[in-house]
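User:
Note these tokens:
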Amino acid sequence: MNMRRIGEAVSENYSSFTKGQRLLAEYITDRCDKASFMTSFELASVTGVSQSTVVRFASALGYDGYSEFQQALQEELKYRLSALERFELINDVPSDEDAVSSIAAVDSLNIKKNATPLAVEALKGLVTRLMLSSKVYVYGQGIAAAASVYISHYLKILLPNVSCVNLAGVDTLTAAAGIDSGDMLLCIGFPVHQDGTFRLMEYAKSREACIATISESDTTGIAALADVSLVCECGDMGVGGSLAPAISMCCSVVFMLARYDESSRKKIKSAEDAAHFVR
């Protein structure tokens, strides 16, 4: 199912909740950070309701079981954590070495998620669409601008017509004003997704362009607008999460383009030779 934000689900169903369900609703609203990682038994114990009430509560919100409900809670947490709160997640780590090790471990885990069979199939789908597109517009929201610049650098070598919206020097809609049917908008973004990102995507959709996204879930708002959706976790450690998994995914896109297209490999070699040219 397309997992809605927890707050939306609670608001829509609150009037029909039982007394126990209202206790649960209040707890997860106020203590989402705690509830996100509790088992159904633990959540039942802390709120004073039965475990079956917790399971029925998840069902009443429209989730297929407690596991999906808990996943939605964890997604909600990403939207609620401020940069400072993300930083404070590692305050209890005993040493600087342990803190850096924890961030590296989370990055490593999230990068490995990029290599699951489903993730690889999604990558192949994106690469195919890229090769078929007349022009590719790349946009990275917020900190993801770094990922958009990175992948745009290589796409400009491999593909005939690529524009990095972030480097255009004008507002996003002006930068993408020429997008049309047969083109692609590749949008990279992580929580919280901004209105400007949605406007850009909706404009591209109105022009009948293909839309591809790289975001933290295939149920995010921007993914819902996409023809091709890739999932990449940015993590909760550090200040604003890490772009390492997103950069790794962009690297995979470039590699697969070169793998499938002999002319792309020649273009990469030519670019490398040019970079080492000596007068």
User: Anything to note?
Assistant: The beta strands are 136-140, 162-164, 184-188, 210-215, 228-231.
